[in-house]
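Subject: sequence -> structure tokens, single chain

Hey, anyone have a minute? Need the predicted structure for the following. Not urgent.
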Amino acid sequence: MGDNESIRVKGTPVIVFGSYNFDAPKPWLQLVMNPKAMDIAEAEIEKQTVPFLNNILAEQKKRETAETAKQ
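Reply:
Had a minute. Here:
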């Protein structure tokens, strides 16, 4: 399998996109007054994730295979 420092399987994928205006009011503080203040359109999520989808699914399969082999 390799040494103790090798990555055997990857965990939850995270995709960071867009920019953040640190001088603007914090959007999460707006949620009390507007629960949709931080909503992201489904189309925007798809646009950002599609380029990574094949890799995410391949890594998911590796993780599932490793979990099955452990049992």
